[in-house]
Predict the 3D structure of the following.
Amino acid sequence: MNGAITLRPALPRDAHAIAALARDHVEAGLPPKYDAAKILRAMRQRDTVVLVAAEGSAVRGFAVMEFGEERAHLVLLAVSPGHRRRGIGRRLLEWLLESARTAGIASVHLELRAGNAAARRFYRALGFSETILVPGYYGGREAALRMIRVLRAPGAALPAWQPPWLAQK
Ligand SMILES: CC(C)(COP(=O)(O)OP(=O)(O)OC[C@H]1O[C@@H](n2cnc3c(N)ncnc32)[C@H](O)[C@@H]1OP(=O)(O)O)[C@@H](O)C(=O)NCCC(=O)NCCS
C-alpha cells in the first residue's frame, strides 16, 4: 500500500539509498560516478540541494541540483521503479524549480541519456525544451541530450523584494 510522500532535504543516512538509485537507474551500464561518499559531499555543498521524496523511512526518489548565479544544473533525478507515475518526479522537480525561481535563477539546465525516452517525455511534461545532442558525453559511449527550462530572461531585473516587517508600525 502507498502512503504519504514527504519532500525533505537529504540526511547523511540517506546517502546509500540515493547512491543506489543513481547507480541502478541513472548510470546503469556506465562507469559509476556517484557513490555514497560523493552524495554526502554534495549534501555539504552550500550551492547544492539534495532533495529526497520519503515514504516513512524509505527513500522513493531524489534529486540533486546545483545553484549558480543565474543558472542551475539538475545533476541527478530518479524515482524508484515501483513508485513511478505517482507524481513523485514532478513534485521533486517542481520544488526545485520553485526554489530556483525564488533564488532569481534565469534558467535550469540538464543532460540525460539521449535514448532515455521516458525521461525526455517527463522533462517535456515539466516544461523543458531540448537544445543540443552531445555525442559521446557519457564515457565516450553514449550521447547526451541537453534540455533547458527558462525561468526568466537572463539579466532582467529581479522583482523588487522587501524584507517582512518584524514589528507592527
Ligand atoms: C523520469 C522519472 C524521474 C519520472 O519520475 P515519475 O515519478 O515516474 O514521474 P511523474 O509521475 O511525476 O510523471 C510526471 C509526468 O511526466 C510524464 N512521464 C513520466 N514518466 C513517463 C513515461 N515513462 N512515459 C511517458 N511520460 C512519462 C507524464 O506526463 C507524467 O504525467 P502523468 O503521469 O500525469 O501522465 C522516472 O521515470 C525515473 O526515475 N527514471 C529513471 C531515472 C531517470 O531517467 N532520471 C532522469 C534522467 S537523469
